[in-house]
Amino acid sequence: MLLAVDIGNTNIVFGCVNDKDEVVLFERISTNHNATSAEYAVLIRTILEMNSFNVSDIDDAIMSSVVPSVTNTVKEAIHKLFGVDVMVAGPGVKTGLNILIDNPAQLGSDQAVDAVAAINEYPVPLIIIDMGTATTLSVVDSKKNYRGGLILTGMKVAADALTARTAQLPKVNFEVPPHVIGTNTIDCLKSGILYSNASALDGIIDRIEEELGEKCTAVATGGLSELVVPLCKRKIILDNNLLIKGLAIIYRKNKK
What we know:
The protein has helices spanning 37-50, 68-82, 109-121, 155-164, 185-212, 225-228, 242-255; strands at 2-7, 11-17, 23-30, 60-65, 87-88, 98-99, 126-131, 134-140, 145-153, 217-221, 237-238. By secondary structure, the chain is an alpha/beta fold.
């Protein structure tokens, strides 16, 4: 099996892909900037065992990362466990993606990986939404060119900033309240956080389609998308395996 890892600012996603390109394991842990390679190795072994897999089941590994300080630590952990050199999605690695932004080197590896997977699986033109520490939207046109996108403040970052800057607003769990119109402070916060993000996605999709002059397939991934997407008025496909699928595709392209 192939181990696919995506390191984000808040979470690290681990996935396993079998020889049929099926995602057979998907787990998410918190990103720990202070953890050692041995600590990450223990976590990875535990994740495999929890899902009834063994270390010997892993043949190779690929990784994308937006956290350079953690990248090498996790690479070392994987090498210790499996004895493999990790392929890292980034400069010098073939993606097959035609990137038309001003400086292609500035494109986040996670956005590139998401786009590779989405183009492979869904009709173009595409709007790809990744809701993590930041919320990113990527646009792929009808000729499968990566045109650019948007970066929004992530839902958790915005909520933390709001409660940190106010004396009487408490931190809340991200749960859908019973009504849009809240009748107490907690529900008002939940409603405001969740529905503002849903409305933002609806509105941005409208504006992107207006600029492109055609309707788009919208696909969402990331830890918070499961909460927000059902509240959107626009049809958005949920695919939390998008990054893992994209990493597997890139791995196959570069191992041929």
